[in-house]
Amino acid sequence: MFLDILKGFIIGICASAPIGPIAILVIQKTLSKGHKAGFITGMGATCVDTIYSAIALFALAIAQNFMEEHNEIILLAGGILVAVIGWFMMMSDPFRKLTDEKSNGISAKDFGQSIVMGLSNPGAILVIFGLFAFFGIGPDDGKEGLTVLPLIAAVFAGATLYWFSITAVLEHFRKRIRLRSILWINRITSIIVIIIGVALIGESLYRVIFLGMPLD
């Protein structure tokens, strides 16, 4: 059991590590608003990864079938949401956030943006499934009920440690970055998020138009 918990902890770290829209959002929030804002944004992603881990252990087959049947609409909806979040990131004013004392506290908006972006990214759950398969953990291991809870908690703990460490490091460098540099970082990261969203939309439309996949 201890070995499975250790594997779950590592899975939590590995699931958070890939550079994607969530990581870019965390970077943008940390550099423009500080460590607390970046960490709470990362915690949104942690909650999503924890949900996906529970699905991987309890309802892997159901989740896989659902994604296969509705893959195109998931890509389209996810792409639109990611692009919209990227647009609002680009239109925001990082200088105002830097001078606003309240911005150093916990923001439900930052947490919510991360949750929405995580749930709208179909690749995230595939990463979780792949990691569980790589470490040899799955629904056929005889794990039921309370025996699964420590494993899910370990995934949560690993992801939490990762985002706390990353945002702490970014906060250290944030103090050395000039305001104009933060403005450019905000714009660049926003554009990257928008591009990711447009790419997801494009992939969905390509599947529907050129491959004849149904959009339902």
Automatic annotation (TrEMBL):
The keyword DNA-binding does not apply. Keywords: Cell membrane, Membrane, Transmembrane, Transmembrane helix. Pfam families: LysE. It comes from the Bacteria. It is found in: Cell membrane. GO terms for molecular function: amino acid transmembrane transporter activity. The chain crosses the membrane at residues 6-27, 39-61, 73-90, 111-137, 149-170, 182-206. It is a multi-pass membrane protein. InterPro entries: LeuE-type. Its main location: membrane. One of its GO terms (cellular component) is plasma membrane. PANTHER family: ARGININE EXPORTER PROTEIN ARGO (PTHR30086), ARGININE EXPORTER PROTEIN ARGO-RELATED (PTHR30086:SF20). This is LysE family transporter. It comes from Candidatus Cryptobacteroides faecigallinarum.
